[in-house]
Amino acid sequence: MQHLFKRGQMVRLSQGVTARPPSRIEYKVMQQLPERGGELQYRIKTEREPFERVVWQSALEKV
Prior knowledge:
Helix content: under 10%
Low-confidence stretches: none
Structural class: mainly beta
Distance between the termini: 22 Å
Strand content: 35-45%
Oligomer: single chain
Strand order of the largest sheet: 4-3-2-1-5
Largest sheet: 5 strands, antiparallel
Mean pLDDT: 91
Shape: globular
């Protein structure tokens, strides 16, 4: 498996990840994480929130 997104890259949550309509909030990839459950993960952060999120690679799209 290979990471599709690099540290520092800007990404968005893909459509269909949440029950709400997709937002256009941009997140910065803070760290690439190892595979878990057959899929790669990332730690992402937006300036709007004081915390980081961990998301699956399939939940992200390029800005």
